[in-house]
Amino acid sequence: MSDRATTHNLNDLIEIARDGKDFYTEASGEVKNAELSALFSRIASTKSDIVTALSAEVAATGGKPAEHGTFAGSMQQLYGKVRAAFGDTAYGYVAELEDSEDRLLKAFNEVAGDSKLTPAARSAVERFLPIVRGTHREMSQLKHSMKGAA
């Protein structure tokens, strides 16, 4: 795969991970539950690590790393705020953050499945894929447990 295509794929992941980082950071400050706030802060930090590492990979190929999130991520974050304002704040954020994890996992799986990815990019994606899967699973389980408790 060309460096240009690799840059494009990694920048997609950077933008979506940045969306998640921003959303988790916001949610951390909005929920009243200290345990949930700490979880959101931890996950925001993980998303930041992903953004930093993938940005370094893009720069190593001579590309320009993405500097912003996506429009879809901004809209999802706005919807999460509205949903949390009119219902159970914690569950509203958890549900929307779990959707955000769906989006990131799908993007990672698509990029990881690209057989033409450069070796360095593949290594970076494969290094973070288990983390992305684990966070997705954690948020999905949390959403379902909260829904069942309601």
Automatic annotation (TrEMBL):
Boundaries of every DUF2383 domain copy: 6-111
InterPro entries in UniProt: CHP02284, DUF2383, Ferritin-like
Gene3D superfamilies: 1.20.1260.10
Domain of life: Bacteria
UniProt xrefs under Pfam families: DUF2383 (PF09537)
Record-given protein name: DUF2383 domain-containing protein
Protein's organism: Lysobacter antibioticus
Species classification: Bacteria, Pseudomonadati, Pseudomonadota, Gammaproteobacteria, Lysobacterales
